[in-house]
């Protein structure tokens, strides 16, 4: 199995502490080989990082407490853990990729599926964490070592589903760091609450959020950048890679890599061919597509963005249930979880 399913429970600091301990055996080696960490280290002690810390503590004190717990569990200074969790707010381009698709089936079932693309070093070194909190619904999320859960793919016990795609924004702006924002979404109990969070808080970096929820017929595509938020309701089918494509976000400067452009074009072509008979196997086939020099399924050691597909998630969303299936580059699900009933 390429990743382990780990259960964690407690208050904010306790769950952060457990996440830090889970990552601690790997973290030093992971950062030592990371070009992203090399690029981040000059930001140590910078006034802009202090500003991001202040914004985070003021807007999301519970998430900040988790970050402090994580630093304790990692045996790392909180400043360095914050720095790592602000990588997308400080750097214009990081090794966080991803492709997401969404579908409304004829029977009312909603589907969200996602390739989690990241540092190839992390293949086989990540976890699926199942976190029970004392003051929030609790959640399941793919967990990168030392990064707050939520910025990958996840769902909470209230039935809210979120997948995240990296956006490479060419500006820096004081605000709430994007990874803390994504983590906070998993504390929301409804789509409207999540949208309120994304609209109301000031943003430092940029993410694309695909959102759905049990008992809510909507599927949503949210492009978030400093000073701008665009929310589109998905009609029947949708695909998104790693750059902004909403018409009203066209004025924001961004980096569009060759891989992101190729994957966006390819996924749009695939989903345009979907019909009401499309099912989970079709979503999985789309995300495991290998056509072209820069395919959707990313396994090349020479990937130009230094990213490989680490896991594929397929969420099935109904009226009162959410089922998550997680795959590792093959057709058989390695993990199947009923998110809302807390049973595997």
Automatic annotation (TrEMBL):
Source organism of this protein record: Achromobacter aegrifaciens
PANTHER family in the record: BETA-ALANYL-DOPAMINE_CARCININE HYDROLASE, PEPTIDASE C45
Domain named Peptidase C45 hydrolase: residues: 107-328
InterPro entries assigned: C45_proenzyme-like, Peptidase_C45, Peptidase_C45_hydrolase
Ranges annotated as spanning the membrane: none
Name the UniProt record assigns to this protein: C45 family peptidase
Domain of life assignment: Bacteria
């Amino acid at each position: 199995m390429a990743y382990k399913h780990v259960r964690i429970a407690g208050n904010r600091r306790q769950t952060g502490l457990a996440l830090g301990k889970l990552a601690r055996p790997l973290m030093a080696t992971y950062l030592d080989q990371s070009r992203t960490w090399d690029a981040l280290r000059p930001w140590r002690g910078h006034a802009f990082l202090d500003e991001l810390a202040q914004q985070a503590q003021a807007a999301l004190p519970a998430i900040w407490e988790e970050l402090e717990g994580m630093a304790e569990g990692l045996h790392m200074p909180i400043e360095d853990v914050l720095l790592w969790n602000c990588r997308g707010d400080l750097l214009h381009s990081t090794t966080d990729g991803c492709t997401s698709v969404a579908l409304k089936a004829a029977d009312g079932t909603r589907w969200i599926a996602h390739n989690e693309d990241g540092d190839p070093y992390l293949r086989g070194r990540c976890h699926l964490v199942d976190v029970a909190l004392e003051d929030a619904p609790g959640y399941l999320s793919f967990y990168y070592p030392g990064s707050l859960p939520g910025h990958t793919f996840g769902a909470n016990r209230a039935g809210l589903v979120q997948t995240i795609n990296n956006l490479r924004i060419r500006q820096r702006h004081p605000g709430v760091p994007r990874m803390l924002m994504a983590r906070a979404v998993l504390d929301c109990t409804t789509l409207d609450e999540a949208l309120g969070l994304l609209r109301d808080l000031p943003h430092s970096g940029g993410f694309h959020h695909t959102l759905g929820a049990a008992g809510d017929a909507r599927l949503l595509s949210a492009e978030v950048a400093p000073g701008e938020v665009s929310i589109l309701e998905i009609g029947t089918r949708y695909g998104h890679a790693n750059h902004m494509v909403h018409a009203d976000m066209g004025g924001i400067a961004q980096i569009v890599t060759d891989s992101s452009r190729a994957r966006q074009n390819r996924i749009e072509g695939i989903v345009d061919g979907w019909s009401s008979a499309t099912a989970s196997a079709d979503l999985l086939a789309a995300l495991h597509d290998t056509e072209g020099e820069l395919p959707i399924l990313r396994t090349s050691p020479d990937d130009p963005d230094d990213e490989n597909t680490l896991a594929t998630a397929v969420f099935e969303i109904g009226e009162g249930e959410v089922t998550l299936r997680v795959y590792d580059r093959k057709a058989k699900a390695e993990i199947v979880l009923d998110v809302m009933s807390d049973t595997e």
